[in-house]
Sequence to fold (240 residues):
Amino acid sequence: MILVVVDAAEADRVSEGLRAGIGLGLRGDDVVVVLTGPAAGFSQSDDPRIVRALRTLGELRRPARVVDEAELAGLLVAARAIETWSSARVEVRRLRIGDREIEVDGRRFRAGGRAIDAAEVVAQILGSDGPIVVR
Amino acid sequence: MAKRLTIVVSTAAERGDLDAAFELARAASACGVYVSMFFMSEAVAGLPARRDELAELAEDGCDLAVCAASAAAAGLGEADIGLPLGGQDDHAAMVSRADRVVAFT
Fold:
């Protein structure tokens, strides 16, 4: 299952996340789109882009659902790929690979208080047995 | 068989995600990983300034695609970015085929 997590606070980002959720289903994959955190309130939005995207997802019989942290945690475990559409204001990126977390600051990566190079990050990504969560 | 890594970027260049994505793509490609990258939304506006890096990645065999709708919204065409424009079908195909997906979205 491909999981699209929309947790942005801005209508533009929410709209784009929903559009990605529609597009990712074009190859027949099982795609689940959820609204959580600040994005949950957009489930009742009157922004025409969001209204249209939510309607399309509903017509495709995979409506976007509002989920809480507990339900989201279960979906994250079940997914094989995850796109998290977060607020543009989040300062530090974090990659979660299994039980490890890597901080991303542009071209620099840090894990466990030490700098690591991109090749090591790639090795961890490809060596993992679960999806990569970027927050 | 080579592993497939797909990287999706949707954020503005100032966010730093394009930098991280290019760094990971270069490292993965150097290790023999098959890399696909899809750019959409605000990330697309940052691509003209990265044309040389995009060309290098393409030369290394990376599969690169840009959302045409996002490019149009940013007032950009293929000549500005140096890559053919694609769409959400490319996005879906890249994620569908990937062993692992890293989404800076």
User: Anything to note?
Assistant: Strands of chain A lie at 2-6, 31-35, 65-66, 81-85, 93-97, 100-105, 108-111, 114-116, 132-134. The radius of gyration of chain A is 16 Å. Chain A has a mean pLDDT of 95.
